[in-house]
Amino acid sequence: PAFYRRRLLKIYPNHMVLWAVALGYFSTMAAVHPGVWSTNLSLVHSWIPRADTAVSLNQPSWSLCSELLFYLLFPLLWRWVRNIRSNRLWMWFGITFAGLLSTQLMIDAWAPGTPLLPDWPLSLMQAWLGYNFPPLRLFEFVLGMLVARLLAEGHRVSLGVAPALAVTGGAYVLSLYLPWQYGFNVILAVPLALLVAAIAHADVTGRRTGLRGRVLTLLGEVSFAFYLVHFMVLVAVHDLLEGRQFDTATAFAVTALVFVVSQMLSWLLYVC
Q1: Strand locations in the chain, DSSP E?
Q2: Burial, 77: exposed, middle or buried (Cβ in 10 Å; 0-12, 13-18, 19+)?
Q3: Which DSSP symbol is given to 213?
Q4: Region of residue 161 (left: phi > 0; alpha: psi -120 to 50; beta: else)
Q5: Contacts of 200 (CB under 8 A, 6+ apart)
Q6: Cβ–Cβ under 8 Å, residues 85 and 68
Q7: What SS3 class is residue 116?
Q8: Which stretches of the chain drop beneath a pLDDT of 70?
């Protein structure tokens, strides 16, 4: 119960504030009907394979459905993960990644490929299953749990922060040239897991990473709020500018201003 309380307090108040902001902002749209706003409020909307529902209102909130599912399952999953023998952790890491890859291969092969979404080279069903459907994102969460156990058991997981960051950057570039559904998580899951492991290992061993200063720590603490705030700020600025275009210097200045405003609102949301 204490675990559930902490996790819900992390997610839900932030979500409710941005849900109310988005509902007020988009209230004139016909798409904002009770079936959309009620499922969004209760964080079950990304379970529904509808374009106007799965990613609705404050769009980043779709991923909270996956987080909520994981938090609900975590105590049960942890009973299994903590009982894996130390010499079999890497094997289960490989099996979990194979499950992630196999899932995307099956979606690619069997999910209907038409009609295509307006802005993506994928159908709604391919995008929903590959990206939004919460149960199919559990592979990544379990990879994280296994990495935590590998670190705790003293296995060599860390490449070092700089090499892990380079591998992650390379994987990101590679993802831009692969079919979209493989760029969702297959290519980046392992590099990101290794990057998190490298930074965690540096913290545990007391190595300097430049990430433990007061400013960066504060930015880390407000990053969840920033994730939820940034989309609505971008939408509001986009509508305010009414499609105007700028020279490069002015465009960079506008972008910087939007970033600062988003950070300030994120800090306010975090503090309050």
Answers
A1: none
A2: middle
A3: S
A4: alpha
A5: 148, 151
A6: no
A7: strand
A8: 29-31
CA-angle at 58, arms to 113 and 54, nearest 5°: 30
- Per-residue tokens: 113: 């490929």
Q: What is the pLDDT of residue 209?
A: 85
Q: Per-domain residue ranges for the chain?
A: 213-272
For residues 144 and 109, give the distance between their C-alpha atoms in angstroms, rounded to a whole number.
27
> How far is the C-alpha of 246 from the C-alpha of 270, rounded, in Å?
33
Burial 163-185 (b: 16+ CB within 10 A, else e): ebbebbeebeeebeeeebbbbbb
**Cα separation, 31 vs 25, whole angstroms:** 13
Q: Tell me the one-letter amino acid at 233.
A: V
Amino acid, single-letter form, for residue 171: A
Are 56 and 45 in contact by the 8 Å Cβ rule? The answer is yes
Is-cis flag, bond preceding 115, omega within 30?
yes
- Closest among 106, 105, 102 to 94, alpha carbons compared: 102
Contacts of 46 (CB under 8 A, 6+ apart): 54, 55, 62, 63, 65, 66, 132, 133, 134
Token pair 């990613």: residue:
55
Q: How many angstroms separate the CA atoms of 29 and 145, rounded?
A: 41
3-state secondary structure of 115: coil
Beta strands in 11-148, from DSSP E residues, in sequence order: none
Write out pLDDT tens, residues 178-225. Answer: 998 899 899 999 999 999 999 999 988 888 888 888 999 999 999 999
